[in-house]
Specification:
Elements: H1 17-28, H2 33-40, H3 44-57, H4 61-66, H5 69-85, H6 89-105, H7 112-122, H8 129-143, E1 156-161, E2 166-169, E3 176-186, E4 192-197, H9 202-216, E5 222-225, E6 232-234, E7 241-242, H10 244-252, E8 256-259, H11 269-286, H12 294-309, H13 320-328, E9 344-349, E10 355-358, E11 363-366, E12 375-380, E13 384-389, E14 392-398, E15 406-407, H14 425-435, H15 437-448, H16 454-470, H17 472-485, H18 490-498
Parallel strand pairs: 1-5, 5-8, 11-15
Antiparallel strand pairs: 1-3, 2-3, 3-4, 6-7, 9-12, 10-11, 12-13, 13-14
Amino acid sequence: MLGFPILLIMCNNLIRMSKVRSIIKLYAQGVSKLSIGERTQLPRNTVRRYVHLFLASGLSLDDVDKLDDKTLEQMFLDMSSREHIEDDPRYLALKELFPEIDKKLKQRGITKEMLWKEYFEKHPDGYRVSQFKAHFLRWKKANNPTMHIDHKAGDKMYVDYAGERLHYLDVFTGELVEAEVFVAILGASQLTYVEASSSQQKEDFISSCENALHFFGGVPKAIVTDNLKSAVIKSSKYEPTLNQAFLDFVSHYTMAALPAGPYKPTHKALVEGAVKIIYRTIYPEVKKQVYAGLESLNRAIQRALESYNNRLLNARPYSRRQLFEDIERDQLQGLPKNRFEIKRRKVVTVMKNNYVCLSEDKHYYSVPYRYLGKRVTILYSQSEVEVFHHYERIAIHMRDRKHYGHTTVEDHLASKHRFLSEWNPDKFINRAAEVGPDTKEYIIGLLGSRQHPEQAYKSCQGVLSFSARVGKERLEKACRRAMHYGDYSYHTIRVILERGLDNDEFESGEEQKPMPPIHPNIRGPRYYA
């Protein structure tokens, strides 16, 4: 049978799969090979051959019964073909070259035909191109059962979350906290990045993707994701809708986003396989102890990950890290100068004091006076606030989280251009005079307590609005008491009125402590007297 396919007997008649099944069943029942040959009318060597392949397959009788005839036939053909060539010197010489051939094929522009020509020049008695390809594909399938796609260097990064979470200790509560485990892998070298994060939310997901790029030291041409909401708002077989923040992220790093098709795990089989491997390699190492905080957990993951990436690949004389350095690092795009920052968006109206309010921080930012009353868009990140009107950026500021503070560009202010809007110091002073002398004096002091009068307009408006709510008499008393404290703000008047402190008697004749200027540029109340 050495020169004949397994399914042929000497007269070249095909053996039916029903006879093969009979051989296996009879052997499982303890019948001798001689008796099996007599019952099936097959040569004893053929029976011996099938029994040998059945035992080598590692399958049970039940497993064989579950296979259809076509699958069973192909399995025996593959096994027979491998056994036939294992002793061939030409195949043994070629097999030694497979790891290097596999590495070279990951480089752009390299084809199997080109590598066959190199091989055949050195081994003129070797295999022709068709056999060369067939043997290589069979070897690759045996050593990489999940890798049926040829990944090119620098082409794609695959990302996913592991289903099994890790844990860390919350040092404040003493409770164990679950952590999501993010996995990223480069297609060609299989260099892998693993990170624990608090959640799969947009901010954490994008941060993990960015950390992976900096771990790799470069940017691939595309990123392949699952259909999680942090990346894809609406999945589609043809045209998925990406989350805007994720779209901004891939644009910042000049990558293409390629979400896997719905219910198509094979589209990201590489990272699915990586997740299974880290369950066996990284998880056992990390789970040996409990970590105080997320950072400590990630440091343990990085130590285990370094060992994992430096371990030799199956049937290859190199590791993921070595393969990355040899073929993929130089194929990655360079990292941009600045890291990506998620930007949020708010639409607001410019107030009459030249400012817009970022409600998240309760902080005010100036815009040019000519946009008073206009609808504008605020785009803000962790460090920066930009204001746009009809797609034109009209202001940019460093973000300040001080509540009720003002960030000002002096050239934006109406007073700097002698431009009088509906809100101006004279208007507020005149309205205060209608309430009473103490209110007028308080408004003058309030205007003078700010570096720029515009910064006090909103507070003045708030103070004067109490006249309609509590009456002029109570507002007068509240302003008198606030001036006694030397405290000029809307919130001071509000607290006095809410607590009824305006009705409490106090010694108004006490020497009043003047409020010292908080900035050398502050005008002071005398400026408006």
